[in-house]
Design a protein that fits this description.
Blueprint (H helix, E strand, L loop, with lengths): L7 H20 L18 E7 L5 E2 L4 E7 L5 E2 L3 E7 L8 E8 L6 E7 L9 E7 L5 E2 L8 E7 L5 E2 L14 E2 L3 E5 L2 E4 L26 E4 L9 H5 L2 E3 L12 E2 L4 E6 L2 E10 L7 E7 L7 E9 L12 E8 L12 E7 L10 E12 L2 E10 L5 E9 L4 E5 L2 E6 L10 E8 L11 E14 L5 H13 L4 E3 L5
Parallel strand pairs: 17-20
Antiparallel strand pairs: 1-3, 1-12, 2-11, 3-10, 4-9, 5-8, 5-13, 6-10, 7-8, 13-14, 15-30, 15-31, 16-20, 18-19, 19-30, 20-29, 21-26, 21-30, 22-23, 22-29, 23-24, 24-25, 26-27, 27-28
Length: 483
């Protein structure tokens, strides 16, 4: 294990970063976690009832509404249930979006993702898979979920043709059992008939043919949201920080309103704006992080746009633009702390005179007196623009990639011992880089984030996996189990 002495300015920042780790994690509400009980198909069963209110052969959106009933003899955890509705895409390039209008269980407890069938038929080449978060709870024998008013539509809002969709039945306008949707319970098929040649457990992702047991589960988010206040953002497990504290300029505000979403290049990107007028009180920082600390070994990836210059006002501030994972320091020099950073400083700081990109793997630290145990890699050049950032963690090393090239490989001594959250933030180290009181604002943008549990992907495999999700119209999926 090696210890990299941290220059004094950076040490001060790291003390603030410690406050971030504690404040951000304590300031968020963790997702509820329930014990997972593996159910067997024997003695367990489900039935799915279906109806639609969009009964025409064509419609601006499809509305498959469901109730799921427990027909077995013991309680069923809904987080183990998957329901699939099969349909024919209106074109090979069509992208779809899922929405929940209302549900007895609450829309925040219901997930919807799209997939592509391994064996397309004349009436189905895609499916909508409905799942449940742990917050949905369980179903007692004989109980049902109640009404789930769901819908999906083309992202372009082109008219949908439903008449050739395998699971569609325009005549079914009140709930009744429907076997042209399928249900899985703990991975076993327990209801319905899939289109010919396709079963609920057929592999559909050619990039994942050899997932190890307990591995390969994925978090993917395309950041297709309306605003920082969009209920779906929170329902998908994100916290937009508003609580006070470090890192950064004392007295600054972490402002959720400065996190916005906009269409760009055919996708929606998340924009984090940081601004100041030269005082702590006028400074606005931004951060978005997962509520859950459930991520450990595997692959982490994001496409991030760094900025060298402000979008308005004078340049020169000591800015930090980031993508990182972190957990909390339980005690000074605790050996189960972990943090893995991409940090870009466009105007220097921490003793650096100009732009520099750091990747840093943290073992632990002592906030006072400052002592840091970490390993880092660095490159002193401009990284303005879009970059594909990947870090992989297995049982042997931590490897960082920038735009498909290895940026740094760090020792096994810095491997994580506890799960972490995934974070993006943008903040000012201090106000020494630019002393003007003229307002200025900087942007950092994020196109997507991906995590694949316990599986190391190459940057090319990351790109292929993201492209497959987008081709299927999947804007969000979270299969990573709670830790």
């Amino acid at each position: 294990m090696s210890t990299r002495p941290t220059p004094t300015p950076r040490s001060a920042s790291r003390r603030s970063r410690a406050a971030l780790a504690v404040a951000a994690l304590l300031g968020s509400t963790a997702l509820a976690t329930l014990p997972v009980t593996q159910a067997s198909a024997a003695g367990e069963g489900l039935a799915v009832q279906y109806r639609t209110s969009a009964s025409g052969a064509t419609a601006d959106q499809s509305e498959p509404w469901f109730k799921v009933r427990n027909t077995g003899s013991s309680a069923v955890q809904l987080s183990q249930v998957k329901v699939r509705y099969y349909f024919k895409a209106d074109s090979a390039s069509a992208a779809y979006r899922f929405a929940c209008s209302w549900a007895v269980k609450g829309c925040s407890a219901i997930t919807g993702t799209f997939g592509t069938l391994a064996h397309p038929t004349a009436t189905a080449d895609r499916y909508l898979e409905i799942g449940f978060t742990p917050a949905a709870g369980s179903l007692a024998p004989g109980a049902d979920t109640g009404d789930m008013q769901l819908r999906f539509y083309q992202s372009s809002w082109q008219t949908l043709r439903q008449s050739d969709d395998y699971s569609f039945n325009g005549a079914q306008t009140s709930y009744a059992d429907w076997n042209k949707v399928t249900a899985q319970l703990a991975g076993a098929s327990v209801w319905g008939v899939a289109p010919e040649g396709n079963g609920p457990t057929d592999p559909t992702d050619p990039t994942d043919p050899t997932d190890p047991p307990g591995g390969g589960q994925t978090l993917f988010d395309d950041f297709t949201y309306a605003s920082s206040g969009d209920p779906a953002l929170s329902a998908h497990g994100w916290n937009v920080r508003s609580n006070s504290g470090g890192p950064g300029v004392p007295g600054a505000t972490w402002d959720p309103s400065k996190v916005t979403f906009a269409a760009q290049g055919g996708n929606t990107v998340m924009n984090l704006e940081t601004s100041t007028a030269g005082t702590g009180e006028s400074t606005r920082h931004t951060e978005v992080l997962t509520k859950s600390t459930k991520f450990k070994n595997g692959t982490y990836a994001a496409r991030v746009k760094f900025s060298d210059a402000p979008k308005s006002g004078p340049d020169g501030d000591h800015l930090v633009q980031t993508f990182f994972t972190i957990n909390d320091l339980k005690a000074p020099m605790a050996d189960d702390y972990a943090e893995y950073d991409f940090e870009y400083l466009p105007n220097g700081g921490w003793g650096e005179p100009s732009n520099i990109l750091y990747t840093t793997s943290w073992e632990t630290y002592n906030p006072d007196p400052w002592q840091a145990v970490n390993q880092h890699s660095e490159s002193r050049q401009s990284f303005a623009g879009w970059h594909d950032l990947v870090v992989t963690i297995d049982n042997q090393a931590i490897t960082y990639y920038v735009d498909g090239q290895v940026f740094g490989t760090h020792d096994a001594a810095y491997l994580p011992e506890r799960p972490m959250s995934i974070n993006f933030n943008q903040w000012l180290i201090d106000l020494n880089g630019q002393t003007s009181t003229s307002p200025r604002a900087y942007d950092q943008q994020v196109d997507y984030v991906l995590h694949v549990k316990d599986k190391v992907l190459t940057p090319a495999q990351v790109a292929a996996k993201v492209a497959a999700y987008r081709t299927a119209g999947t804007a969000f999926v979270d299969e990573v189990p709670a830790s």
